[in-house]
Amino acid sequence: MNGDTDVLVVGGGVIGLCSAYYLAEQGLRVSIVEQGEIGSGCSGANAGLIVPSYSIPLAAPGALGQGLKWMLQPDSPFYIKPRFDPALCSWLWKFRRACKPQSMLQGIRVLRHLNYASSELCEHLIVGESLTCNYRRDGWLMTYTTERGFQKAVEEARLLQSYDVGLKILKPDEAREMVPTLRPEICGGIFSQDDTHLNPEKFVQALARRLNEKGVAIHPHTGALGFTSSGGSITTVRTTGGDFRARHVVLAAGAWSAGLVRHLGLTLPVQSAKGYSISIKKPEPCPQIPLYLSEVKVAVTPLEGVLRFAGKLELVGMNLDINLRRVDAIMSASKDYLHNIEYPDTMEIWRGLRPCTPDGLPIIDRLPGYDNLIIATGHCMLGVTLAPITGKLVSQLVCGQAPDMDLAPFRMARFK
Ligand SMILES: Cc1cc2nc3c(=O)[nH]c(=O)nc-3n(C[C@H](O)[C@H](O)[C@H](O)COP(=O)(O)OP(=O)(O)OC[C@H]3O[C@@H](n4cnc5c(N)ncnc54)[C@H](O)[C@@H]3O)c2cc1C
What we know:
The chain is an alpha/beta fold. The chain has helices at 14-25, 63-71, 86-98, 101-128, 147-161, 172-178, 200-213, 257-262, 324-334, 383-398; strands at 4-10, 30-33, 49-50, 78-80, 140-144, 167-170, 188-192, 196-197, 217-219, 224-230, 233-239, 242-251, 271-281, 291-293, 298-303, 306-315, 347-356, 363-366, 373-377. It has a domain at 53-82 and 135-194 and 270-356: D-Amino Acid Oxidase, Chain A, domain 2. Residues 10-16, 33-36, 40-43, 46-49, 223-224, 252-256, 260, 275-277, 299, 310, 352, 354-355, 377, 379-385 line the site of flavin-adenine dinucleotide (FAD).
């Protein structure tokens, strides 16, 4: 037995770490178990964007039809591996339901509120704890190579502006003035002044170090295997490093969460969606601010010494294989947007599994049937953006305090 603790957090990604942070701030004794290294899941070499502007959920009208069309193109941004999987079928059915206009508008309202609250907390966390992670307030420029793509984006931008999202619609020359490496053929840009970015690997490592200093016990290479319970409470978490006893358990195991709760006879509507990043030595010239190559859905983030391209969303199950054809597609598509950039031969390739819910909102809730088991996952493309507010809400749930915002949109019951 590893001794008693107030809270055991399962998962050392950005969600588990931020949950541990706010739990420790409440004066609780916290331990984290992580099956690999801290940040070795999806919270590693992602694009590192904190994007309150990204407030339209993945499930939006037309998304399923577009996704199905893309399935026929091997290099497309989105891919579903054809297979018979009842969990995937049920997820797609719920996704279809969430694509209705009314659900999307409700999703924007909730996501916008959550995103902005989190981005504010993130700044407090980074500045307040002096976390060295190359945090920058440079905004985010979304760019378009097709008139059709740009006009659709202008409509979406106007919709988001009506929800008070700080966006500026730019003419092609205004976008190119901002980023001279954009090709002359660019049709326009949407600039989001409220977005920031950081180096995600440095962020999780710096936060883990600070947690250590605050007395949080971090156990890497310790995988949770199952649970024992009594009278509706989890009593023990069984791990590869022995049994842990805790008054509360927080499951923040990202794309692995669905598999873990199956041990408790529960089904979690979370599918893993693989994405890739490619980091190259910073070329000269280089975009100075983060970009989004919108039609091909590739994020480009300048980090210290490195330019990172990130994209693709593949519903392929818990499969971490690297599909080089898709990796190459990210790099070649970027050439339609950027010119005068030399791509070196050496690049670092990374992939991560995003935990995705059908409606694009996270799950932050107590698991049904257990009074001391809380789940925090399903952040899909926004886990870095949403980690601080998720951590804070988790800590309020554990402590039985009134949460900073209504938790109804994040409850499991919404999927019934
Ligand atoms: C290409 C790409 C780019 C992205 N870019 C951005 C971005 O710019 N901005 C943004 O906000 N988000 C971005 N994301 C999404 C973001 O990376 C994820 O939403 C976020 O990392 C999810 O965090 P997590 O802590 O839930 O999951 P993870 O980081 O995967 O953490 C879960 C952890 O749990 C551990 N674990 C699993 N099972 C067990 C077990 N049984 N016992 C113990 N530990 C276990 C895993 O090893 C893992 O470390 C991107 C994702 C991808 C793939």
